[in-house]
Design brief:
The chain has 20 helices and 2 strands. The chain is mainly alpha-helical. Strands 1-2 form a two-stranded antiparallel ribbon. This is F-box domain-containing protein.
Length: 421
C-alpha cells in the first residue's frame, strides 16, 4: 500500500500520528515511509510528540526545555516556540518523563475515582499538566532547597521569591490544580515516610526533604514501596509546606467539603457517588477495588483497632496487640478484614465486587463485626506468627478468654433479640 502513495501523502500521514510507538511501527513497514521520515525526522518527531501530549504540550515543552538548557522559560508559550523542532535528546527526555507522570496520574485517579473505568481526556490533561509543572518546580528549585534544608545554616531558605513567582504566573485554575496535586503528593510521601524500618525516626523531616526530589524518585517509592496500612505513627503533614511556601495542609478527606480533588474530577469524584447501601453522597465509598488503601483513611493500625474493636476486649493488650501486629505485618490486612466483615454482614462475593459502600455504612459494619472476625482469625494468625518467629505478643490469657466468651454471649443474645423483633 505504502509504495503506491505519493511522498507528500505519506508525510501528512506521519504527521497525524499521535504516539511514538505507532510512528516506529509505520517507519518499519516500508523503505518509502522510512525515506520520508529521514528527510526531516526532527519536525516529524516534534509533531508526533505534540499530538501525543495534546493540550498538555505547553507544560511538557517548558519542562523539556529546562532539562536541555537549565534555563526556565518565562511562560509555557515561549517554551513551545523554543522547542520547535525538538532535538533527539528532547524526545528521549519527553518519553522517559512520561512513564513517571503516567504512573502518578493513574495512582491519583485510583485514589479519587476508583469506580471509573478511566479518566476523561480533560481530567488527564489537568493532572498531567500539574505533574509536569511540579516536576519543573522540583528540578529548578529542589537542589538548592535540599542542600539548605540538610545543612545547619540559619540563613533564609533560598529562592523564596522565585518559587512564589513561579506559581503566581499560572492562572487561578492552574494554581489550584498545582496546589491540589502537590498536596496529594505530600500526603502520599507522608505515608511512605512512616514505613517501619525504612525511614529514619524523624519521618516528618524525611517527608519535608523528599517532596523536593524529582518525580521519578517519588514515583518509585510510592508505586513500589508504599503499602498504605504499614503506618507506624501519624505524621504532621502541615509541616511539609516549606518547599512550596503556600502549600495547603493535608488531611484525609472525610466528606466532600474536605476533598479538593473534586475541583479536578467533578462528578466523577468518588465522594459524589451514591452509596449502594444507604444512597447517601458526600463521603468516601469503599469496594474491593480500593480496600487496599482504606487503612490510611482511619490512621495507623492502632487507630483503626481503637476505633472499631469491642470496648472491653480493646482494653486487653493480649487481645488487641496481636491484631495491631498482624495488620502492620499484613498477616491480616485491611482487604481481608473488609472481606470478612462484609461476608458476615450478608454480602456475597459478587456484591463486594459491584457495590460501593459509604464510610458511614462500612464503619457501622466494622463496629459490629470486627471483634468477631478477629476472634475467628486470632488462632490462625498466632500459629502463623509462631512458625515465622515473629510473634510480638503472648497468646491470650484465661482472663481474655473469659472476656471473649462474654462478648460471644452478648452477640448471641443481641442476635436472638433482633430475630424476635
Amino acid at each position: 500500500m505504502w509504495q503506491s502513495l505519493a511522498l507528500d501523502v505519506i508525510d501528512r500521514i506521519l504527521t497525524h500520528i499521535d504516539d511514538i510507538d505507532t510512528l516506529k511501527s509505520i517507519i518499519c513497514v516500508s523503505r518509502r515511509t522510512a525515506a520520508v521520515y529521514r528527510a526531516h525526522p526532527n519536525s516529524i518527531l516534534t509533531i508526533v510528540c505534540q499530538n501525543e501530549a495534546g493540550a498538555a504540550w505547553p507544560s511538557v515543552a517548558r519542562f523539556v526545555l529546562f532539562k536541555r538548557t537549565r534555563l526556565l522559560a518565562e511562560t509555557e508559550d515561549q517554551a513551545v516556540e523554543a522547542m520547535t523542532p525538538l532535538e533527539r535528546k528532547d524526545v528521549m527526555t519527553y518519553l522517559q518523563s512520561g512513564y513517571s507522570v503516567q504512573e502518578l496520574a493513574e495512582r491519583f485517579f485510583s485514589r479519587y475515582a476508583p469506580h471509573k473505568a478511566g479518566a476523561s481526556v480533560y481530567q488527564c490533561v489537568i493532572v498531567r499538566c500539574a505533574l509536569y509543572r511540579i516536576w519543573l518546580y522540583q528540578a529548578r528549585f529542589g537542589g538548592a532547597w535540599e542542600r539548605w534544608f540538610d545543612s545547619t545554616s540559619h540563613k533564609p531558605a533560598p529562592d523564596l521569591e522565585a518559587r512564589r513567582e513561579y506559581v503566581d504566573k499560572f492562572s487561578n485554575h492552574e494554581r489550584m490544580e498545582f496546589t491540589i496535586i502537590y498536596r496529594w503528593l505530600m500526603s502520599e510521601i507522608g505515608k511512605f515516610s512512616t514505613l517501619p524500618g525504612y525511614t529514619s525516626q524523624f519521618p516528618e523531616r524525611h517527608a519535608q526533604l523528599y517532596i523536593s526530589r524529582e518525580l521519578p524518585d517519588i514515583s518509585e517509592v510510592l508505586c513500589f514501596w508504599l503499602s498504605s496500612f504499614q503506618l507506624s505513627r501519624r505524621i504532621i503533614l502541615t509541616k511539609m509546606n516549606q518547599f512550596f511556601p503556600d502549600a495547603l495542609p493535608y488531611r484525609t478527606p472525610v466528606s466532600i467539603t474536605d476533598c479538593l480533588e473534586e475541583h479536578i474530577l467533578g462528578d466523577d469524584c468518588i465522594y459524589k457517588k451514591p452509596c449502594d447501601r444507604c444512597n447517601t453522597t458526600g463521603t468516601m465509598k469503599w469496594n474491593e477495588k480500593n480496600w487496599s488503601v482504606a487503612g490510611g483513611f482511619w490512621g495507623t493500625p492502632e487507630d483503626f483497632v481503637d476505633e472499631f474493636l469491642d470496648t472491653e476486649l480493646r482494653d486487653m493488650r493480649e487481645f488487641r496487640q496481636p491484631l495491631v501486629d498482624a495488620m502492620e505485618r499484613l498477616d491480616y490486612g485491611i482487604d481481608e478484614i473488609f472481606c470478612d466483615v462484609l461476608e458476615l454482614a450478608g454480602y456475597s462475593a459478587v456484591q463486594m465486587h459491584e457495590q460501593w459502600i459509604c464510610t458511614g455504612c462500612i464503619s457501622g459494619m466494622l463496629h459490629e463485626w470486627l471483634t468477631f472476625c478477629w476472634i475467628k482469625n486470632l488462632p490462625q494468625v498466632l500459629d502463623s506468627s509462631e512458625d515465622e518467629n515473629t510473634l510480638a505478643s503472648p497468646p491470650p490469657s484465661a482472663g481474655v478468654a473469659w472476656s471473649i466468651v462474654r462478648y460471644l454471649v452478648r452477640k448471641h443474645e443481641s442476635s436472638v433479640s433482633s430475630n424476635q423483633l
